[in-house]
Amino acid sequence: MESVLATCGADAQVVLVDDGSPDACGAMCDELAKKDARIEVIHRPNGGLSAARNSGLDVARGKWVTFVDSDDVVSLPALDLGEPADIVEYPIRRHFATKYEWHRQWGEGTYVSALEYWTSTEGWTHCYACNKIFRRALFEGVRFPEGRVFEDVWTTPLLLRRVLTVKTITTGWYGYRDNLYGITLTATGRELIDLLEGNVEAMRVMGACDVRHYAHALNIQLDVYRKTRLMRLPEHHFRMGEIMRLPWLMRLKMLVPLPTLCKMYKCLARRS
Questions:
Q1: In this structure, how many other beta carbons lie within 10 angstroms of the beta carbon of residue 112?
Q2: For residue 132, which of 97, 199, 198, 85 has the smallest C-alpha distance?
Q3: 3 state SS of 104
Q4: DSSP 166
């Protein structure tokens, strides 16, 4: 919260959502609100990250909105709020062991269509809501899917389909802290299914099945099958020229029929 308050404007609205925390977080939120008039606190029964974000969206009043997870830090970029972009994406720094290192930077760029942005930056690899500043009007009729994890991959493509312009910038940074007990590193088979099905839905929403995105989803499918024996990725046949754009190991995977590949992967994982 210190990083948020230090880098957002004097007229910002800062919404803290206490999602049924069983510890002292709720009281900490109330104490912070007493000290800074920009802060608004919502106390709600535990519903998960999607429900918490949706509660914040329901009371958001600003022209722009962004999200910061409770275990991260941020240096918010200063924006020209009159600029034409609908989504502005800024760099990510990731906390490894004892320090932050640059994790993702896209340079300065302006994309005049959602599909151009999606394919040029391999958008499926960074669907995060946390390092993007959205025009709040994009969320009219759109909310994060409650009851699912990896909710960003379900929601960001829906927002992208509404935009006219996406900008990537080099100022500011989002500090992502690795959490050994977080969903990213401890996902169960059921949770990986959410991630896989979200990627499949993203391909449908974006109206494009890029071979690189399919390869990304294929790796998730292999982990899903290893943990659950379930297949959720539809088979898609690409031209050889498209497959040859991939790294060599991924090319081999793409050339093996999906059911056979899943069984091979499960067998090899068991042996290792």
A1: 11
A2: 85
A3: strand
A4: E
pTM of the model: 0.90
Q: How far apart are CA 113 and CA 105, in angstroms?
A: 20
CA 158, CA 10: separation in Å to the nearest integer? Answer: 31
**Residue 24 DSSP class:** S
Is the Cα dihedral 246, 249, 255, 256 positive or negative? negative
> Is residue 173 within a helix (H) or strand (E), and if so which, with residue range?
strand 173-177
Model pLDDT for residues 39-73, shown as the tens digit of each residue: 999 999 999 999 999 999 999 999 999 999 988 99
Distances in Å between the Cα of 29 and the Cα atoms of 44, 77, 142, 214 are 13, 24, 27, 42
The answer to whether 20 touches 45, Cβ cutoff 8 Å, is yes
For residues 41 and 30, the answer to whether their CB atoms sit within 8 Å is yes
